Amino acid sequence: MEKKQELIHQMNKYVSNLHVFKTIVHNYHWNLVGEHFFVIHPMLDGIMSEIDASIDTVAERVLMIGGRPFGSLKVYLEHSMLQEIDSKPYHGIYVVKELLENFKLLLSELNVVLHMAESLDDQETISLITDIGSAYQKHIWMFSAWLVK
Ligand SMILES: [Fe+2]
To answer: Is 45 helix (H, G, I), strand (E, B) or coil?
Structure first.
């Protein structure tokens, strides 16, 4: 596959990851229970807004570099490395631990996109991917700090 097509495919896989991740976060937002409810429930609203913004940013960048973004839930599920979760009660500490792992996974997937964009010297894609990645690093730091006993 041509390098640019590989980048487009990897970005589409990323859009797929983000759609599944948003569903996971919504599930946690709704099914949260326990003493941390009033801290974590609204915090998850912020994460979902951020995911929505990055879905749009990455999908529109796919168009700008000559590709076509995936636009189907079936296709997202086929291309996401994240698994959907059951709808059942979840405690806050568990949710933060799971989100921390999800952000680490997403960051490593994002770095694959970044390296492909670097090999094509696609500075604009590099810039927007780096912005998303630095926001994840902030979440990883904050979630890790919150989990310290
Ligand atoms: Fe809500």
So the answer is: helix
Map out the domains of the chain with their CATH numbers. 3-147 (1.20.1260.10)
Which parts of the chain sit beneath pLDDT 70? none
Q: Are 18 and 50 in contact (CB under 8 A)?
A: no
DSSP code, position 34? S
Q: Can you tell me whether residue 82 is helix, strand or coil?
A: coil
Distance 48 CA to ligand 1 centre (A): 10
* 145 Cβ neighbours under 8 A, 6+ residues apart: none
Compute the distance from residue 35 Cα to the ligand 1 centre, in Å.
Answer: 17
Q: State the amino acid at position 69 in one-letter form.
A: P
Q: Is 127 exposed, middle or buried (0-12, 13-18, 19+ CB in 10 A)?
A: exposed
CA 85 / ligand 1 centre spacing (Å): 18
